[in-house]
Amino acid sequence: MAYVPPVDDLAFVLHDVLELERSGLPGAADLDRETTAAILGEAGRLAAEVLAPLNAVGDREGCRLENGVVVTATGFLAAWAALKAGGWTSLDADPAHGGQGMPHVVQTAVGEMFTAANMAFQMFAGLSHGAAGAIAAHGTAATKALYLPRLVAGDWTGTMQLTEPQCGTDLGLIATRAEPAADGSWRLSGTKIFISAGDHDLAENIVHLVLARTPGGGPGTRGLSLFIVPKFLPDALGRPGARNALAAVRLEHKMGIHASPTCEMRLDGATGWLVGERHKGMPAMFTMMNAARLWVGLQGLGQAVAAGQAAAGYARERLQGRAVRGPANPGGPADPLIVHPDVRRTLMDIRAFVEGARALALWTALLIDRDRAGTDPAAEGLVALMVPVVKGFLTDRSFAACVAAQQVWGGHGYIEDNGLAQFVRDARVAMIYEGANGIQALDLVGRKLPAEGGRHVLAFLALAKAAAAAAEPDFGAPLAAAAADLEAALAVLAAAGAKDPDDALAGATDFLHLMGHVALGLMWARIATAARAGLAAGRGERAFLEAKLVTGRHWMAREMPATALHLARIRAGGGTVMALAADAF
Amino acid sequence: MAYVPPVDDLAFVLHDVLELERSGLPGAADLDRETTAAILGEAGRLAAEVLAPLNAVGDREGCRLENGVVVTATGFLAAWAALKAGGWTSLDADPAHGGQGMPHVVQTAVGEMFTAANMAFQMFAGLSHGAAGAIAAHGTAATKALYLPRLVAGDWTGTMQLTEPQCGTDLGLIATRAEPAADGSWRLSGTKIFISAGDHDLAENIVHLVLARTPGGGPGTRGLSLFIVPKFLPDALGRPGARNALAAVRLEHKMGIHASPTCEMRLDGATGWLVGERHKGMPAMFTMMNAARLWVGLQGLGQAVAAGQAAAGYARERLQGRAVRGPANPGGPADPLIVHPDVRRTLMDIRAFVEGARALALWTALLIDRDRAGTDPAAEGLVALMVPVVKGFLTDRSFAACVAAQQVWGGHGYIEDNGLAQFVRDARVAMIYEGANGIQALDLVGRKLPAEGGRHVLAFLALAKAAAAAAEPDFGAPLAAAAADLEAALAVLAAAGAKDPDDALAGATDFLHLMGHVALGLMWARIATAARAGLAAGRGERAFLEAKLVTGRHWMAREMPATALHLARIRAGGGTVMALAADAF
Fold it and tell me: How far from B480 is each of A358, B311, B460, CA to CA, in Å?
């Protein structure tokens, strides 16, 4: 399946919508259009020419567990070498550890293309990035010096080991135990499941970050500590030495992302070292959660982008039926699918979602940068608020977009050889892992809304209202109406929460989607303003900017009224939800 | 995956909601609760004990094409024998051909269970049923005498051969040719694709119904005729004789329904016989379309039922987290998932959809019976109107229900071994085949609404308004509001259609979903009335009837407001949909 990197749109969002050079980030002034064009162009080429052609191969071949070692699909080893050689594993890492010090927002733009081209392949890099981030935040100087340069270079990769058979969301049930050894290291024993990239042949070592229970830590999540458990114990020179006592013992047979090995890991007294403080494993893990959840939102989005391209390409070429207003291709046996309003409606729905979602993901990434740089006191709260929305709303809607794109292909979309089914199957997992979307909704309503007296959501609401007031009517009016629905929903939730938490939580998923609509409406209002400014200044391609306005109006007219439906559901509360006895199901 | 046949709910819909005995159908007075209970109970047992255990087997093994013959999955042959032995292939067939003469609505109730238990297996029977129906409607007496008893007995099976590589929806592009032979038979040549059950080892012969082009028939669909092309040419005694010149040459590798062989068929001068009139192939095919599309709606629904059961079972047993109002299972390590409002909301959403959809499918089947019996002059128009809704709305929503059920299982839902992914993959095709759902929407808006001056949709609207007026307020008010939205949408479409058909058709899918909501609202109002009557009369199980009222209120409060969103989108029209040039995609 050919993938066309959306470099022009990424550049438009970075520079025209988010005004990267004027973002106040250290070094941002040097990130002009030429610089990002070079980065995006190179990354796009790798995505289109190296990663995308391997996407179907990986799906077909999957991974094999042979003699305790996971073998990746044909071509993945060479692709990993290309990723390393291009410096793509180190883009936003600290120069102190061999990184290039780019802002996270640039890494996010690049990441969308990589994950769109090959979600399963990008898993290896994404998990490494997360593990490196946790070590950077919580490791000692020696730990950082040992692990970070190798992770950043892509010579080693990382994993996150949380889940166990008896616990997914509820990490308080973790049973893996760590016992102290005489030399200050620990011995870990237990079984972890669903460990992505838990073993593979792309890197010379794998750095596992493992949540485990230490003696005296008490029950629940308070007793958990975080450990580094490398596959090969580093020797005195930091080279992979003796094999550690942990191994992949089984691969899961999954619906999608077949090329990403999902391992059951057995730890039999494996040697590990504490990262961060003892019994502070959960907070250490949470440090990385914003970036990880944003990344999963991006994974979903990437599949929607690629599937949407496939749908548009098919709709332009497949000849079937005649336009209702008369033949559009009178010389041919039939007209292309794209003449049919319902097909066009599908393509526009996907497009309007994808372009707004891209802006939301990049805006959130920029807020993470601004928070890290300490240049924007409101950034941290907005990030906290937006992360469950980006993860939950973007993955729900991206999956729906993949399904819609598959539908454009008719029966041919159901045939695996054509690649549409893979987008659907791969995108599906993004709704599940890194906190299932119901958990994102719970996090948003139960934790993020009430935080600091609701200050962050009120700040977001103010942004939406200001954008509505500044925007032209086709954008301003729907955004204002949606913002009013958001305000009403907040009042309903506050009242319900005080009376009966079940009542509020029954509306959590609807609230997440309501927020998602307002957030994309906010993005579209900003995009429209940027497009108008570009048109007025004669900057940028005219057709591109005019298409932005059409696509934005499509989103505003067709999607924004959904906030009223979500508000109605939130108002419906938990009565019918909780009324039946459990055994009535 | 255990499947629990919903025999009580099917009986409730048949007798309490639809009042089968008083339906005016010939022989309906004999169809009392005891009679249908025996039928439903036996069918449910076969579904649960024979078909459901083979569902995962079929998914895993698929079918094999070996030396030109398709081999089905382990156990399918024995299951087919059990289906025949139980008389399930002949349930609603004419006693003149060995059928049992049951109404279609009873066959539909049975069919829901079979397809819920094993959608791929039920394909064989469903296609046979369709082929037999076409022959019954259009065959000569001799043709019927030869083919129908064997199809009805399940000794032979049937197929429908329409699609070719260059045409799916647009059958006017069919290139398969039929040339007359001296003996009155025809010789057919061409390539057909996507032929379900095109070859297999369950039956001693396969009766293909093939659409082909005859000389002098003119272009487009007007030149098409329908032919019977048996795999083995019947000898003088009607036994399978010489092999005919058509064969499966390739199996598709599909996203789901792996156990149903999707064949590419090559016809190399295959012998066939005309069914119905020459150049009247399309109308002959259309005869069967209502039943076939209702059946596909049922396929979707079946998967939603089975997936919903799997989700509820997991939610009751999987321990994870604590209820927000305090532990519900204080003696255990955690509470079952079902205590969490967002999980309960998911289960209730699935349940409310499934129970309403079941009533809609059975109501539509009963209308087909009443139309055939000639006892209800309004039935034909209502069937024409409801069929695209049952096919399009039920399959869209059933797929969404399967996805939601999979979500309840978290990461374990993504693992193929647990069966949830199969429901999603199998249900997906029901949105595509037998007229993709966009085609259903087009059929509804472009053909069914304007038919006979809009008489049928106005009759439906009157039913909805009457039910709203008669229902208690929790049901009546939302239904009345939705009916008003439907009425407004009709006005918008009529005005748009007169001005610019693209404008109307851009809203077709939204109109289909709007109709679906009103139809399920109408069903829920009737269900509530029946439940109240049962409670007042002390008839039926109290908890069952009270749960109906709760579940119905859930649907009315949470789902019916969606009509306003669909109306807003219909009002948005085709402006942004059609604005961009095709090469802008």
Answer: 40, 33, 13
Query: How does DSSP assign A34-52, residue by residue?
Result: HHHHHHHHHHHHHIIIIIG
Nearest to B437 by CA among A361, A255, A413, A176: A413
Which residues of chain B are within 8 Å of residue A340 when distances are taken between CB atoms? 438, 442, 505
Scored b (16 or more CB within 10 A) or e, B429-467 reads: bbbbbbbbbbbbbbbbbbebbeeeeeebbeebbebbbeb
Token pair listed for A200: 């593979």
**Cβ–Cβ contact B348 with A under 8 A:** yes
**DSSP string covering A306-342, please?**
HHHHHHHHHHHH-B-S--TTS-SSTTSSS-BGGGSHH
* CB atoms near residue B22 (< 10 Å): 10
Best CA proximity match to B364, nearest among B558, B32, B134, B111: B111
Question: Chain B, 362-421: which have a CB under 8 Å from a chain A CB?
Answer: 399, 403, 406-407, 410-417, 421
CB of B177 within 8 Å of a chain A CB? The answer is no
What the block records as the tokens of A334 is: 């039939």
Evaluate whether B456 touches B381 at the Cβ level (below 8 Å): yes
Q: Could you read off the pLDDT tens digit of each residue along chain A, which spans 585 residues?
A: 799 999 999 999 999 999 999 999 988 889 999 999 999 999 999 999 999 999 999 999 999 999 989 999 999 999 999 999 999 999 999 999 999 999 999 999 999 999 999 999 999 999 999 999 999 999 999 999 999 999 999 999 999 999 999 999 999 999 999 999 999 999 999 999 999 999 999 999 999 999 999 998 888 999 999 999 999 999 999 999 999 999 999 999 999 999 999 999 999 999 999 999 999 999 888 888 889 999 999 999 999 999 999 999 999 999 999 999 899 999 999 999 999 999 999 999 999 999 999 999 999 999 999 999 998 999 999 999 999 999 999 999 999 999 999 999 999 999 999 999 999 999 999 999 999 999 999 999 999 999 999 999 999 999 999 999 999 999 999 999 999 999 999 999 999 988 899 999 999 999 999 999 999 999 999 999 999 999 999 998 999 999 999 999 999 999 999 999 999 999 999 999 999 999 999
Burial of B250: CB neighbours in 10 Å, binned 0-12, 13-18, 19+: middle
Q: Which three-class secondary structure state does DSSP give residue B118?
A: coil
Kind of pairing, strands B186-196 and B205-213?
A: unpaired
Inter-CA distances, A328 with A185, A324, A339, A343, Å: 73, 9, 7, 15
Residues B256 and B245 sit within 8 Å (Cβ to Cβ): no
The Cα–Cα gap between A19 and B267 comes to 62
Taking an 8 Å cut-off on Cβ atoms, the answer to whether B432 and A442 are in contact is no
Produce one character per residue of B261-290: b if its CB has 16 or more CB atoms within 10 Å, e if not: bbbbbbbeebbbbbbbebbbbbebbebbeb
| Residues of chain A positioned with their CB less than 8 A from the CB of B347 | 585
- CB interface of A with B, residues 186-205, below 8 Å: 194
- Nearest-angstrom CA–CA distance, A194 and A73: 19
Question: Which of A168, A256, A324 lies at the smallest CB-CB distance from B411?
Answer: A168
Catalytic residue among B355, B434, B472, B546: B434
How many CA atoms within 13 Å lie on the side-chain side of A101? 11
* Residues of chain B neighbouring A508 (CB-CB closer than 8 A): 341-342
Contacts of A30 (CB under 8 A, 6+ apart): none
Is the model's pTM score more than 0.95? yes
Residue A158 β-bridge partners: A207
Q: Could you give the 3-state DSSP secondary structure of residue B409?
A: coil
Dihedral sign computed on CA atoms, order B9, B13, B17, B19: negative
With an 8 Å Cβ cutoff, are A432 and B407 in contact? Answer: yes
Neighbour count for residue B333 (Cβ, 10 Å) = 14
